[in-house]
Design goal:
heterodimer; A: alpha+beta; Glutaredoxin; 5 helices; 19% strand; elongated; B: mainly alpha; 3 helices; rod-shaped
Chain lengths: 133, 162
């Protein structure tokens, strides 16, 4: 039976969960060796992605991308993190920023499979759509 | 009497002979001329009567034929009239049907054209609206690009996450 990427990632997670960093490092080394033995190293990237996903779910971590025109200051980053944590019920929010002049103003927040579009560009487009209808 | 005989110099012998001669001539004429003539005349009369009878019969037949012809003609005329009436009625019905059909077709064409015109009108209107909206949005974007500074942008962000 073929082992799926998800199963491999889940088994790695279960192996490292609750371990100290040094123990975890050892477990990961053994896991990599196992992958090499089973000729599964080519799927390592996917396993890492899946592992990260599982890790985030289990630890209540949410990854979010925020696009703005002028960048965000510390206060805004904190406010946004709190806001995303509140709406996604996450314990921790990992925020990555992106500068996008095309949105004209406001922000676009992407987390998990959701998009919160508060950009001026989108609001203008909505206005345009209302005008055309 | 005797005077008369003397006056005309009648000789009894000759007279009797003449009477006999006359009788003979009369008999000959009767047998050879009058009788055949009467026979021929009788035959001729019979033929004429027959011809007349035949003519009468022919006339009767002719009159009967004429009456039959008239009757047949009258019937034929009647039938012809009936046929003509039927044909006229059928023609009228077909005419009405054709008119109704034509009216329906015209109605359909008008409806189709109306619908087409409405669709075209709506499309044109939409196109105009889109063009106007594009212009307005381009203007708004330009104005916003100039008006929205960093401070206002941060206010917008704060407003969003509150």
């Amino acid at each position: 039976m073929k082992i799926t990427v998800k199963q491999l990632a889940l088994s790695l997670y279960e192996s490292v969960e609750g371990k100290t960093p040094s123990q975890a490092k050892q477990v990961i080394g053994e896991f990599v060796a196992l992958l090499a033995k089973k000729n599964l190293l080519a799927r390592a990237d996917k396993i890492i992605l899946e592992f990260t996903k599982i890790w985030h779910i289990k630890h209540g971590i949410v990854e979010a991308q925020v696009a703005s025109v002028n960048g965000l200051n510390k206060t805004e980053v904190k406010l946004l993190k709190d806001y995303i944590a509140k709406i996604s019920r996450a314990k921790e929010v990992l925020l990555s920023e992106e500068i996008s002049a095309g949105i004209l103003g406001g922000v676009i927040i992407k987390y998990e499979d959701k998009i919160l579009d508060g950009s001026l560009k989108t609001q203008i487009n909505e206005l345009k759509n209302k005008m055309i209808k | 009497m005797e005077n008369l005989i003397e006056t005309f110099h009648i000789d009894w012998h000759i007279f009797i002979a003449q009477i006999i001669n006359f009788a003979i001539v009369l008999a000959v004429l009767y047998w050879f001329a009058f009788k055949p003539l009467v026979k021929i005349m009788g035959e001729r009369s019979g033929k004429i009567a027959k011809s007349l009878e035949e003519a009468k019969q022919i006339e009767e037949k002719l009159s009967q034929t004429k009456a039959g012809f008239d009757r047949t003609m009258a019937e034929a005329k009647k039938e012809a009239n009936v046929i003509l009436e039927k044909a006229a009625a059928q023609a009228e019905a077909k005419k009405k049907e054709a008119v109704t059909h034509a009216k329906e077709e015209i109605g359909q064409i008008i409806n189709q054209e109306k619908q087409k015109m409405q669709t075209e009108k709506a499309a044109t209107l939409k196109e105009i609206k889109k063009e106007v909206a594009d212009l307005v949005i381009a203007a708004v974007e330009k104005v916003l690009g100039e008006k929205i500074d960093e401070k206002k942008d941060r206010e917008i962000i704060k407003k969003m996450i509150k």
